[in-house]
Amino acid sequence: MLYRTAGQFKTSYAADHALFPVRQDAILLGVVLVFAFVVFPLTASEFAFRALLIPVLIYALAALGLNILTGYAGQLSLGTGAFMGVGAYACYKLITLFPEMNIVVAIALSGFFSASVGALFGLPSLRIKGFYLAIATLAAQFFLVWLFQKWAWLYNYSASGAIHVPNISMFGITVAGPRAAAITQYYFVLGIVCVVTFFAINITRGRVGRMWKAVRDMDIAAELVGINLMRAKLTAFFVSSYIVGISGALFVFLWRGAAEANLFDIPLSFRVLFIAIIGGLGSILGNYLGAILIVALPVIISGVPAMLGIRVASATVEHLNVMIIGALIITFLIVEPHGLARFWAVIREKLILWPFPH
Amino acid sequence: MNQRPDHMMLTARDDGIAKGDVLLEARNISLAFGGVKALTEISLNILKGEIRAIIGPNGAGKTSMLNVINGFYTPQQGSIVFRGRERRAMKPHHAVGQGIARTFQNVALFKGMSTLDNIMAGRSVMMKRHIGWQMLWHGPALKEEIAHREKVEEIIDFLEIQHIRHTPVGKLPYGLQKRVELGRALAMEPSLLLLDEPMAGMNLEEKEDMSRFIIDVNQQRGTTIALIEHDMGVVMDLSDRVAVLDYGKKIADGTPDAVKNDQGVIDAYLGVPR
User: Which of A5, A197, A207, A211 would you mutate first to test chain B, the one with the most B CBs within 10 A?
Assistant: First the structure.
């Protein structure tokens, strides 16, 4: 009853191309944004910021980057973690070499480093595809993590081999480093994530997005409608790695505070890939849903026994957690192999007709 | 079907070639895959404004011929002259730039995309706004998108597929998929349209519809068409000239009537009419 499209007529193509052709979607997004910008900051605790909200946003951004490559352009990649690392190390070098540089500029620039590296490792995609390409990107993963360990210049020759985020302020407010307040960092991340998501939506629904999807669905036909495959694939690698790089910079600067090379190892790549797959390949919304499931749910579940006043050993909680999340993932994938985003799409279709079945 | 719109703004691009002159000429094309000779010294031309059919038994090299014409295969011997320019090797996306579009024997649509997006994808080459504008969406990118959308809507009107505009093509029945594929080819505003078995696997009604579309494209838009088809009734009715291939060689070429009565063609392909 609430979700009706009847009576919403479109009188121009511009209206049909609007971000939300259905009015209720716009209202729903408005509600979500109010929660994100007003309600959460007012109510969340320091713990909620650091363990739930910030990581969900950052992981969603990383998954968004991967989704552009895998979900939209159809190129499988297992190098996400390493590309995040490139972004993080590039940002670290920029900040330490040019301390007066604005952090937003540094993060935006560091994306270009990972984008270039991504496009470079995307070159094999011109000849190979599918699982073989995945193996080729795996080479990037191993090579880059090795480079992060061995190239001491990257971590400024620190004895531990780790990078530590200094205190960085912007307009007099500390946004990164040990002294930064969680709420500032949250707003900072949220702002960047919103802007990047907005850009990503526009790219994926326009000409470039159509080219990517054409390459994904049938590359021979794409070539014969005049799409330059090389260009389409390399732009996909570039844009994807750019977003992944930014998320890597945020990952270290706004969340972890410090990082070693092995943080960007293959488990991180898999984690981001899981988020993208469970959320839904070829969807923007899916990345957020996937990140909430993979990142936030474990934290919430492990807090449940304490809330109920049941005393359970923390090791048991951890084990239960893994089991519950694993079972949920399998269930979701059986019920809806196309991910949580498709789940939502089906609900929408049903809601439009509800309460009449046909 | 009698109220067909004839106000099409989309016409074949002006390529400076008068109707009836040679638009494309294949000279002595030979193509081999290892030891298999797919095409042997085939010469044929396509005149501006005509419907040209290529027929022959399975494996005769018809599709290979189309693939040579649009640059997907490079022949070992011979050359293609299109719009007065000679070439041997070229990338398919350049062929599109020059005005050659095609459809496929087995539907080759982008299955995950809607009908509208599929046809819009056909106009990718003509859309120029770079990724910076695309990111912002509003402004020049939106203007370009809408300008092309209007052209695409004309094609959708023309092919009578308004009702499936937003449906993912993977969910459409076969006949409609074929129609969408024709739409995608038309969106490229080709001067030469290659149709590889546009009516394969269709029922009579769908064949009639498709024939109607092909004739309309040819007559209203002046698009030159080369088609491969196995339905002889359709081929003989539609086409102006027919080339017959057998085992990679051209065995006959001429008007439908001449080809129909050619003894070589009857032996190789058509059989004896009852």
Answer: A207
